[in-house]
Task: structure prediction
Amino acid sequence: MEMSRSDKQCFSLVPDREAEIHGQAEVASWMQQDAALMEMSRFGFSSSSEEDSSDPDVSLVARRREEDGCGRCQRDKCLPEATVPEIIWDEGGKKAYRVSLPGAGSFRCAETDLCFDVKAAVTLSYEYGSWQQHLRGGDAKRWTFVGPLFNIRAEPAGAVGAVYLPHFVCLRGQGDTSKMRIGHFVDGKLVLETPARVKPFHAVLENASFSFLGVLWRKIASILHFPIHSLVLIYHATRKEPVTLHLYLIPDDRSIKQAIEETEKKSMSYRVDKPPLTKRVNCGRSYVVSGSAPIAIQPKILDFHLRGADKQQIFSEIYLSVMVEEVKLSLKDEERDKCMWHAVLRRGDIAPSGAGADAPRASCRPPRSRRSQPGWADRGQIPGASATTTEKHFLDLHRVELINRVVEVKGVLDLLLGDVLDFEQYQRILAEKTSHSRMRELFKLMPSWTPWCKDRIYEALKEKHPHLVEDLEK
Result:
C-alpha cells in the first residue's frame, strides 16, 4: 500500500533546487507559453531560444521543462526529494550505488531516479544492467525496453514496500497502459509483472523480490506511433579540428546518457552545455539535423530506434570549418516538418581547449615559472614514473593499489591544486566522504592528463606517501 506524502519520512541529503509551480492557473500559463514557442519554431529561430532567454518568465518555463521532460507530463509531487547515494566502483571501473536508510520512509536516487518506499531500516545496493544480455530471443521480439534495467539488492529484502522504476514513455493521451509490464529476470528467465500503478515517469512494483528489474512495453504494429521523452546531447570532439561536434538523439534514459558520456570522455570529448530536452519523439520516425551556418552534417537524418546502453548510439557529426559568432541548430520531424528541438551555439560555448559542460578546466601544464627553469624540458624522466615513452606510467600500473591504499588524500590534492587540478575539481573530489572514493574521483580525470600531469601526481604521492610508493616500485 502506498504511503501518503504526509505519512512519509523522506531521507533528503541533497534536495532538488528546481522551482515548483503550484496551481492550475500557473500550469495553464506555462503550457500557453510553450505552445507559443512551438508556433514560433515553425517559422525558424527567434532571436533567442526559450532556454537561452534572460526573461524570468521564460526561464521559469525552461526550468519546468527541465523537470518535466516533454513539458506536458507532470512530475508526481508525492515523490521524495532526491538524495545522493554512495557511489561504489569495482576494479573494472563499473559504477554501483548504495544507500542505508535508518527506518520507514521514502528514497529517490539523484543519480538514477530510482525510488523506494521502505517499511523498516534497510541497505539498498543497485547498478545498471544490460538489456542485451537479458532480453533475448522470442522475448525481445515481443517486448521492448522503455527504461533502464537495474540489478537491485536489499538487505533485508522484506523491508521494501515498493520500488518506482523509471520509464521514458510519454503517457499524455495514453490512457491505456495495459501494454506496460515490469520485466523481472529470475535465473535468466523473464517473468512479467503488472505494475501496481503507472505514473508519468515511473512504474510502481509493490512487495518486489529483487534481481534484475526494468520496464517493458509490448511491441505492436503501431510501434511507429510510440511516443517517448527524449534528449539531445552535444559533444565537442577536441581531437578533431577546427570544430567537430557529435549530436545524439536518445531516449530520456540515464543509463544511456551515462554510457555516452563515458565513451565520449575516453576520446577527450566534452559535453556542450545546452538544454537537452526535446518535444516528445516517436520510435521508428526520422529526424533531420540542420544548422544556420555553413556547416557539414553527416548523417543529416537520424532514424530513431531504441538501443540499449550497452550498444553504440547513433549520432550526427557536425563539422564547422570556421566558428562564427553563433550557430543555430535544430532537429525536425522529417514526416511532419515539425521542430522538436533547437538551440543556439555561440562562440563562447566552444573554448579552444575543448572545455565543455563536463570538461576538466585545469590545463595540466606547469606554471610559466617552472617551464622557464633550466632543465624543465627533461621532466617526465622521474625514476619509476614515465622514464620512457614505451613503458606504462606508474599511475597506470598501480591505479587499483593507489585507490585502495592512499589514505591521506587531501594533502596530495593540496599539492596538485593550480597545476593539475582547478578549484572546482579540487572541491568536487574533497566532497567525497572516503579516501577510496576521493581517489576514484581523482582517477576519473586520468584521460585528460598529460605525461607532465602524471609525473606531478607521482611526485605528490611520493611526498605524502613515500613508503607506499617505494613498496609499489619494488
Summary: The domain at 84-219 is CATH 2.60.220.50 (Chondroitinase Ac; Chain A, domain 3). The chain has 13 helices and 25 strands. The longest helix spans residues 24-41. The two ends are 60 Å apart (CA to CA).
